[in-house]
Amino acid sequence: MRIIHAASEMYPYIKTGGLADVVGALSHALAARGHEVTVIIPGYRAVMESPLVKEARRTQELKVRLGNRELAGEIRTLAIRPGLTLQLVVREEFFDRRQLYGTGARDYDDNDARFIFFQKAVVEFMRATGGGYDILQAHDWQTGLLPLLLRNAEQRAGGTLAARTVFTVHNMIYQGVFPRSSFALTNLHESLNAMEGIEYFDQISFLKGGLMYADRVTTVSPTYAQEIQTPAHGYGLEGVLQLRSRGADAVRGIRNGIDTAVWNPAADKLLPAHFAAEKLSGKAVCRTALLQQMGWPEPCTGPVFAIVSRMTTAKGHDLLLGVVDYLAKKNCRLIVLGSGEVKYEEALLAQAAAHPDRIAVRIGVDEALSHLTFAGADFFLMPSHTEPCGLTQMYAQIYGTLPLASRVGGLIDTVRDIATHGEKGTGLMFRPELNDFVKALGSALKLYSNQARYAAVQQSAMRQDFSWESVVGQYEQLYNA
Ligand code: ADP
Ligand code: GLC
Question: Which of 242, 288, 420, 440 is the least crowded, having the fewest Cβ atoms under 10 Å away?
Answer without folding.
Answer: 420
